[in-house]
Write a structure and sequence with these properties.
The chain is mainly α. The chain is 47% helix and 0% strand. The radius of gyration is 27 Å and the shape is elongated.
Amino acid sequence: MTTPNIFILASDNSPQLLPVLRSKPSLASYQDSHGYSLLHAASSYNHHDLLRTLHHELHVNPNICDEDGETPLFVAETVETAQILTEELHCDISHKNDEGITAEEKIRGEGDFVAVADYLKEVRMKDSNGVNGEVQEGEEEQRPPPLPPNVTVNMGTATETDVPDEVDPVFRAKIEELAAREDFRDEEGQRRLKELVTEAVRGVERGAEEGRDVRRRVN
């Protein structure tokens, strides 16, 4: 008896596929001459139950790569498919293909499924921020510049009377503008935040210097 084409069955989400795979589990991880796998097919055609079965029951590697070094995440066309691949199958969002780009970068560059790229960006940003605010291994913690010798910061719990009635409107506007930017948590946003902190610290330094000048003793 001739074995049916499993890739056609997968693209059609045919009920005939799983009995074939269960009778010969090695077929679940089979790849054609271009490295195309059943997981790639299930991802591309949004067959979510098949995605789950291939991984959870038949143990297909979610990071299986085709001839271009691309995982099934690279061919995801809906946010739901991308969610299943990343949140349930734990597909590596940082994996790069043979051209050195991630699934997020490729999908955004092609421009057809921008919502998927936006979702992958959210996952990436969440991962880069760490769990419960902790810095992940290999990530550099973003630190403000050191304070000058004549400036100290006391950490404590503020009360309503501790909060100043007025805040420099220019500095407030800069902070609000920066926080509203989409790249606030990206490298460029963090660089700008450091610049604002540095600017604020230098302002304190200048104020301290001016104060000493006013109080300078004249003989």
